[in-house]
C-alpha cells in the first residue's frame, strides 16, 4: 500500500522526521531512507525481502501503488487465491470461502506471472486498445471536419434556394406589375377618349343652350321654326349617343383588382418550414482491431471438476466402458433421461444408448451417412455432410428429411433453429426447423470449422482446426471475433460444448499422433 507521504521515509516520518526515502520494500510495504534501510537489510526476518528504489516505486501507476499484499479486513498477509471470486485471501478469509472449491496457494498463482505469456498478451492488448482509441479519435475528428463541411454545403444550398425563390418571386411580381400597368393604361386611354368625345358634344349643347334665349328674342319666326328643328336634331342625336353609351356598358364601373395566386398564398399557410435538417446514420467505416475477450480471466487457470462435464472420465482416466461399437462413432449427444444418441458414420445408422444400463436400446436407420448429432429432448437431428439431413421425432420416431443442409457436418440446436458448420467451405449456417437457410456466414477467422455450440444468448461459438481458434459469431450471423487462439493454448480444437446455465465452455483439442492424448480447455 502506498505511503501517505510519497517522498519521505515511512519510519522517520512516523517519528516526525522528514528524511528522503531511497528504497521501497515490497513485502513490508514501507519506504526507507539510507539509515533505516541498513538494519532492514541485515535483519534475519527481512534481509531476503525484495526491495526496489523509491524512484521506481513512484513510477508505478497509482492504482498499482494502492494494491496491498495484506488483507484490509484482517490485516493479515494474503496467502491464498480464490479463483471463483477472483480475489486473494488471507488465512482468516477462508471462513468466508468455505463453499469455494478452488482455493490455491497464492505463491503458485504468482510464481511465473511476470514471465507468463499473459503479460505479453496484455501488453499487446494495451497496444491494440491504444491503437483503437487513437484510430477512433482520428476518426471522430475526421467526422467533425466532415460535418462542418456538410454544414457549409447545407447553408449554401439553403441560400441558393432562397435566392432562387427571391429571383422567381421578383419575376412574378414584375410580371403582374407590368400587367397592371398595361390594363390600367388601356382602361385610362379608353375612358379619356370617351371623355373627349363627350366633351365635344357637351360643348355643342352648351353653346345651343346659351344661345337659346337670344334665338327666341331676336330670330324671326321662320328662323325659330327651322332653328328649333336643328336643335331638336342635335339633342336627339346626343340623347341617342348617351343611350348607346349606356346600352354598350360604356358607363359600367371598371375597377382594377388583383387576385393573388392561391398557390402563392398557400405558402403563408401550408409551408411551415424552409425544410428539415436530418441526421442520417450509416454504417461506420472505422476499422477497429479485434481484441481478446475477458482477458483478465486468462491470468488464472480455473478448471472446474472435469467429472461434472464428462461423467465417464476423471483426469483423462476411463472410469467404465458403456458400449463397444464395431463401427467408428462420429458424434454423440444427450437426448433425454439417461439416453445418448451416437452417430456411426458410413454405417448409415444412429444408436440410442442407455448410459445407466450400459446397453443399446434402439438403432435408427437412415438413407444417408450419420455424422453430426444434436437434440433438444423432443427431436434429434442427424447431419450427413451430404445433401440430406434428417430430423427424428423422439416421441413417435418419425423421420423428416431436411433437404437444404448440404455439406453440414457438426450441428447444434437452439430455440427451434439448426446451426451447423461446413468444413471445407469455411461456412457457418443457421437453418429453421425445416432446413431452410436463415443465414450463412463466412469470415477470415473461421478456417475449417468443425465443432459448434451456442450460449444462452444465441451467440454461436465455432472451433476451427485450420487456425486453432475459437470464434464467436453474433446471433444474427453478421459479425465475428476470435476469443481464443493458439496464444491461449488452443491447438487444433475439434469439439466444443457450452453449459448454458453455468456459463462454462469445454473445448477438446490437440489430438496426438496415436489419437490417445487430448487436451481439454475450460473457459468461463
Distance between the termini: 31 Å
The major β-sheet equals:
4 strands, antiparallel
Return the average pLDDT rounded to an integer: 84
Query: Percent of residues in beta strands?
Result: 15-25%
How many DSSP E strands? 27
- Helix tally equals 8
Low-pLDDT residue spans: 1-5, 295-318, 511-518, 520-524
Structural class, from secondary structure content? alpha+beta
* Shape estimate: elongated
Biggest sheet, spatial arrangement of strands: 9-10-11-12
- The helix content, as a percent range, equals 25-40%
Integer-rounded radius of gyration: 50 Å
Plain-language structure description:
- With 524 residues, the chain is of the alpha+beta class.
- The protein contains eight helices and 27 strands.
- It has helices at residues 10-14, 34-42, 54-59, 62-65, 106-110, 117-218, 221-247, 262-270; strands at 23-25, 30-32, 51-53, 80-82, 87-89, 103-105, 313-314, 317-318, 331-334, 339-343, 349-354, 359-365, 373-375, 379-382, 389-393, 399-402, 411-414, 417-422, 427-431, 437-441, 449-454, 460-464, 469-473, 480-484, 493-499, 504-509, 519-523.
- The chain has a four-stranded antiparallel sheet with strand order 9-10-11-12, with no helix packed on it. A four-stranded antiparallel sheet has the order 13-14-15-16, with no helix packed on it. Strands 17-18-19-20 form a four-stranded antiparallel sheet, with no helix packed on it.
- Helix 6 packs antiparallel against helix 7.
- The two termini are 31 Å apart.
- 19% of the residues are buried.
- Residues 1-5, 295-318, 511-518 and 520-524 have low confidence and may be disordered.
- This is B box-type domain-containing protein.
- Keywords: Metal-binding, Zinc, Zinc-finger.
- GO terms for molecular function: zinc ion binding.
Amino acid at each position: 500500500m502506498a505511503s501517505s507521504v510519497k517522498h519521505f521515509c515511512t519510519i522517520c516520518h512516523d517519528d516526525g522526521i522528514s528524511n528522503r526515502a531511497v528504497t521501497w520494500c515490497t513485502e513490508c510495504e514501507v519506504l526507507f531512507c539510507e539509515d533505516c534501510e541498513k538494519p532492514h537489510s541485515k535483519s534475519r526476518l527481512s534481509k531476503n525481502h525484495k526491495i526496489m528504489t523509491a524512484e521506481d516505486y513512484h513510477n508505478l501507476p497509482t492504482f498499482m501503488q494502492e494494491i496491498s499484499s495484506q488483507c484490509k479486513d484482517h490485516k493479515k498477509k494474503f496467502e491464498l487465491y480464490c479463483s471463483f471470486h477472483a480475489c486473494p485471501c488471507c488465512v482468516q478469509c477462508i471462513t468466508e470461502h468455505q463453499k469455494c472449491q478452488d482455493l490455491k496457494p497464492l505463491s503458485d498463482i504468482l510464481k511465473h506471472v511476470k514471465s507468463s505469456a499473459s503479460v505479453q498478451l496484455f501488453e499487446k492488448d494495451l497496444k491494440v486498445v491504444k491503437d483503437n482509441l487513437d484510430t477512433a479519435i482520428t476518426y471522430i475528428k475526421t467526422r467533425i471536419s466532415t460535418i462542418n463541411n456538410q454544414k457549409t454545403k447545407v447553408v449554401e444550398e439553403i441560400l441558393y434556394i432562397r435566392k432562387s425563390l427571391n429571383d422567381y418571386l421578383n419575376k412574378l411580381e414584375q410580371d403582374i406589375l407590368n400587367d397592371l400597368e398595361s390594363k390600367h393604361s388601356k382602361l385610362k386611354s379608353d375612358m379619356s377618349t370617351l371623355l373627349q368625345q363627350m366633351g365635344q358634344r357637351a360643348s355643342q349643347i352648351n353653346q345651343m343652350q346659351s344661345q337659346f334665349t337670344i334665338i327666341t328674342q331676336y330670330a324671326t319666326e321662320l328662323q325659330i321654326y327651322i332653328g328649333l328643328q336643328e336643335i331638336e336634331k342635335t339633342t336627339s342625336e346626343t340623347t341617342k349617343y348617351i343611350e348607346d353609351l349606356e346600352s354598350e356598358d360604356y358607363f359600367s364601373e371598371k375597377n382594377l383588382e388583383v387576385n393573388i395566386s392561391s398557390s402563392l398564398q398557400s405558402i403563408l399557410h401550408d409551408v411551415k418550414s424552409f425544410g428539415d435538417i436530418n441526421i442520417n446514420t450509416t454504417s461506420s467505416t472505422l476499422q477497429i482491431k479485434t481484441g481478446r475477450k475477458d482477458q483478465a480471466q486468462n491470468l488464472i487457470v480455473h478448471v472446474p471438476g472435469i467429472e461434472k462435464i464428462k461423467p465417464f472420465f476423471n483426469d483423462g482416466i476411463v472410469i467404465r466402458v458403456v458400449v463397444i461399437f464395431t463401427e467408428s462413432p462420429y458424434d454423440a449427444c444427450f437426448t433425454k433421461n439417461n439416453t445418448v444418441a451416437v452417430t456411426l458414420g458410413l454405417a448409415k445408422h444412429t444408436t440410442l444408448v442407455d448410459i445407466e444400463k450400459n446397453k443399446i436400446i434402439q438403432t435408427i436407420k437412415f438413407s444417408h451417412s450419420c455424422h453430426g448429432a444434436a437434440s433438444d429432448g423432443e427431436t434429434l437431428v442427424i447431419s450427413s455432410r451430404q445433401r440430406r439431413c434428417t430430423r427424428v421425432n423422439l416421441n413417435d420416431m418419425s423421420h423428416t428429411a431436411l433437404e437444404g443442409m448440404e455439406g453440414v457436418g457438426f450441428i447444434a440446436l437452439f430455440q427451434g433453429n439448426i446451426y451447423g458448420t461446413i468444413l471445407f467451405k469455411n461456412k457457418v449456417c443457421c437453418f429453421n426447423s425445416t432446413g431452410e437457410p436463415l443465414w450463412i456466414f463466412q469470415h477470415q477467422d473461421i478456417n475449417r470449422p468443425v465443432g459448434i455450440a451456442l450460449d444462452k444468448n444465441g451467440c454461436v461459438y465455432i472451433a476451427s482446426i485450420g487456425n486453432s481458434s475459437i470464434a464467436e459469431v453474433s446471433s444474427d450471423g453478421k459479425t465475428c471475433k476470435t476469443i481464443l487462439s493458439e496464444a491461449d493454448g488452443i491447438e487444433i480444437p475439434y469439439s466444443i460444448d457450452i453449459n448454458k446455465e453455468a456459463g462454462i465452455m469445454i473445448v477438446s483439442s490437440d489430438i496426438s499422433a496415436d489419437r490417445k492424448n487430448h487436451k481439454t480447455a475450460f473457459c468461463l
